[in-house]
Amino acid sequence: MEKRKLADSFTDAINGVLYSLKTERNMRIHFLAAGLVLLLSIFTDLGRWEAAALLFAIAIVIMSELFNTALETAVDLASPDFHPLAARAKQVAAGAVLTAAAIATLIGAIVFIPRLADFHPLFLRKVAQVPAYLSVVAIALCLLVILLAKALPRGEFFLQGGMPSGHSAVSFALAALTLFLSRSWFIYIIAFGIAALVAQSRVEGKIHTTLEVLAGALLGTFVVGLVFQLGGYGF
To answer: For residue 114, is it within any domain?
Structure first.
């Protein structure tokens, strides 16, 4: 049997996430909640361990939902007809997701409530103290939007191809990051050129259409620009 490449395993894993997003409403809700939490974190002065706790909480909830989807699929395969034990297995898996979501909510409350309690008129003008964290938030949000867009109910979906182009979105997001972090249009032009080459390769390889590549480029640029504007590091 032909040995599988690492890239094949990675592709299968991403397709698993996309399948869960497409078929499970709760997973889409979790991704939306994760995006809102990341946006809210821009306006708060998170410490290193607080940021780590939030990311851990987000990961636990999403992983729990993925395990739940996998278990439900396996149970449906093994027991296509109703069986009390099959129903019980699904209930226990759903309970695990509920527990993870409750703990994540508690972590979010511990992190955010003390800061939101100090709300004042200048709250929306506060800036994140660490631009590097804004970069992580921007890329994370960009990836979340890409996965959500690819998982929209519209028939078949694939990791490669489809609307929008994920490679183009990430490439142009990174190009925009160079502009906001370096404040140099010269460096940005170089980064833009590299991103354009990535986008062109997706069209030339017939993996994406020009429209899909353009949509990805606009998406990546918009998300990074929005995050840095909200974070107080816009032009």
So the answer is: no
